[in-house]
């Protein structure tokens, strides 16, 4: 998926009247737009706002036009908002700007936290974390945050094993 092109087409499908739409994203699309990773992704994970009918209709038109799967624009990771700090939007980075659509990525530390958390469940996210080239200090901060995201007895072991693998790949 050419994310820039997809977002340009989405912007074209939005109604001419009304205010500029703002989307806050995370995941592989955010890493791609930030120039951190060129890994292909089939979707764009929107944290905020919840996708309303106008945005869904525009996204569905783009899916047909560009041959994308329905749901390519989704709120899949919206539960992440329960774990982010209240001021998370202040650190967001503008990654796409058009007259009708502005798209922001999570800020670096929040994006790193979300990717490490995901990597603890899905090993396929580890290369994304490695591509971000986090420092030892950043990984320590992330570890503390990720540990608070799950209360299961085995979670600390999972987090530590995941971070060990990330550190191994970084070296």
Write up what this structure looks like.
- The structure is a single chain.
- This protein has 171 residues and is an alpha/beta fold.
- It has 2 domains: 104 residues; 61 residues, no CATH class.
- The chain is 47% helix and 13% strand.
- The chain is built from 7 helices and 5 strands; from the N terminus they run αβαβαβββαααα.
- A 5-stranded mixed beta sheet has the order 3-2-1-5-4.
- The mean pLDDT is 95.
Compact summary:
The chain folds into two domains: 3-106; 110-170, no CATH class. Helices cover 47% and strands 13% of the residues.
Number of domains: 2
> Which range does the strand content fall in?
5-15%
Q: What is the mean predicted local confidence, pLDDT?
A: 95
Number of helices: 7
What is the number of beta strands? 5
Order of helices and strands: HEHEHEEEHHHH
Features:
single chain; 171 residues; alpha/beta; five-stranded mixed sheet; 5 strands; 13% strand
How does the SSE layout of this entry go?
Blueprint: H1 3-13, E1 21-26, H2 27-33, E2 44-48, H3 53-66, E3 73-74, E4 93-97, E5 101-105, H4 108-121, H5 126-131, H6 136-147, H7 155-170
Parallel strand pairs: 1-5, 2-3
Antiparallel strand pairs: 1-2, 4-5
Helix pairs in contact: 1-3, 4-6, 4-7, 6-7
């Amino acid at each position: 998926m050419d994310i820039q092109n997809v977002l340009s087409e989405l912007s074209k499908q939005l109604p001419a009247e009304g205010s500029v739409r703002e989307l806050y994203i995370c995941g592989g699309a955010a890493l791609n737009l930030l120039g951190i990773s060129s890994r292909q992704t089939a979707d764009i994970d929107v944290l905020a706002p919840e996708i309303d009918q106008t945005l869904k209709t525009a996204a569905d038109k783009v899916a047909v036009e560009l041959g994308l799967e329905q749901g390519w624009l989704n709120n899949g990771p919206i539960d992440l908002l329960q774990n982010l700090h209240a001021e998370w939007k202040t650190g967001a980075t503008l990654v796409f700007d058009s007259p009708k659509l502005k798209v922001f990525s999570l800020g670096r530390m929040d994006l790193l936290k979300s990717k490490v958390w995901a990597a603890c469940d899905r090993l396929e996210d580890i290369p994304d974390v490695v591509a971000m080239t986090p420092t030892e200090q950043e990984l320590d901060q992330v570890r503390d945050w990720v540990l608070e995201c799950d209360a299961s007895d085995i979670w600390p072991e999972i987090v530590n094993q995941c971070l060990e693998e990330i550190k191994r790949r970084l070296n």
